[in-house]
Amino acid sequence: MASRIKKTRLNLFAGAVMAVGLLAGCAAQGMTVRNNSAEAARLALKSGKGEKAVSSAEAAVAASPRDASLRVLLGQSYFKAGRFQSAATTFDDAMKLGDNSARTALSLALAQIGAGQQQAALSVLDDWRGEIPASDLGLALALAGEPERGVAVLADALRNGENTPKIRQNLAYAYALAGRWKEARIMASQDVPADKLDVRLTEWASSVAPELYQKRVATLLNTPIRRDAGQPAMLALANNPAMEQVAAETTANPAAPVAAEKAPVVAVGGELPAADAAPALAAAPAPVAPPVAAPVEAAPVEFAAAPAAPAPRFVSEPVVQNLVIAPARQARAVVQKAAGTHLVQLGSFSSPQGARRAWGIYSARNSALSNYHMQITPAVVRGKNVWRVAAAGISGAGAANGLCSSVKKRGGACFAYAAPRGKSPSAPGRDASGPMMARKR
After folding, report:
1. Domains of the chain and CATH, by start
2. Which pLDDT score is estimated for 151?
3. How far apart are CA 246 and CA 252, in angstroms?
4. Contact at 8 Å (CB) between 16 and 253?
5. Would residue 64 be called left, alpha or beta, if left means φ above 0 and alpha means ψ between -120 and 50 degrees?
6. DSSP state, 272?
7. Which residues of the chain, if any, have pLDDT below 70?
8. Which residues make Cβ contacts (< 8 Å) with residue 212, sequence separation at least 6?
9. What is the tens place of the pLDDT at every residue in 110-128?
10. Alpha carbon distance 404, 390 (integer Å)
11. Three-state DSSP state, 439
């Protein structure tokens, strides 16, 4: 009997080793596919071949679905192909995977504008207004349906000494979107030759109607406008768990034959003992930062045109499809063994991207937050949608108050509260928003 058990264990061990070996082989093959496909996508983008870039970038993401930089590359490819809905989903995925760069936030907002999601775009722009350059922020606000706000941002930048062709031309177009054609002509004339000024203004007039939001973004990015069914379901983050979770589930399966060596288990009260249920209910490990591909070498985002360009365009072709990818910053979230009794709310934001970004900044400033996990809860405050970010998994009021005191000492704003019993923890009916954390870490 002992030799039989020993033999079974050896077989199980060998099966687990084989499973890990197969995973390693698949990972190496996937790395090759990822790198080759990503390079093909970049080359296609440089050549202006949007559809080819999309197919190559989708292959790269399929091979490495949790790589934030590849998601950004795919979003850029969707942009070039004129698929704004897919681009919006993909840039949002990149931010969920830890890309907290202002460029990705700006790209997400532009994609949402092109997809007709103006309110979502405005929320992103509001949360990132301290990091997106004024020349880009002002034009994006104008494109999102708030031209007067865009004018204010651009005019302030101009008065503060940022007197560049980019600022002036973006301000001129914002004036046009606001219906202030006299100011638009005066401002545009500073950089546009007199014989081309009427052509420029006529082009602007042809796209200022509210329903032409897609045309405005397509003109900005120099892309076509295409019907878009959305990102393929096989690339959705929900269908692509972390590799560590897949490996854990794969290596857990060989343990099933052990149950065959035991005597039959009789269920008591309709439930099986926890020990027998464990193999099928193996917990997923804590998330880890995804691998980051080599940076894409390209020019930074530019909205404004070089002056006196021969083509009657109000902006240059911004190289949104060739962003320089910074290493993704992954918000650290530790999965607690216990749900905890208290939470500490750190802030309230107008978009989930802003809430995730704030957690990363807060946790960088307060090392104690790394002992707890991030919880984002949607709410409605005075008729507006907000997303609250809190540290969850705290045991006891004393620990929660101590953590909040630590946050306040470092310039944050917070309050501690008890998690309601029998319900998903959510903050009380007040909105104690902390600083919007708009500046860089």
Report:
1. 66-232 (1.25.40.10), 331-441 (3.30.70.1070)
2. 97
3. 10
4. no
5. beta
6. -
7. 1-30, 241-339, 422-441
8. none
9. 999 999 999 999 999 998 9
10. 11
11. coil
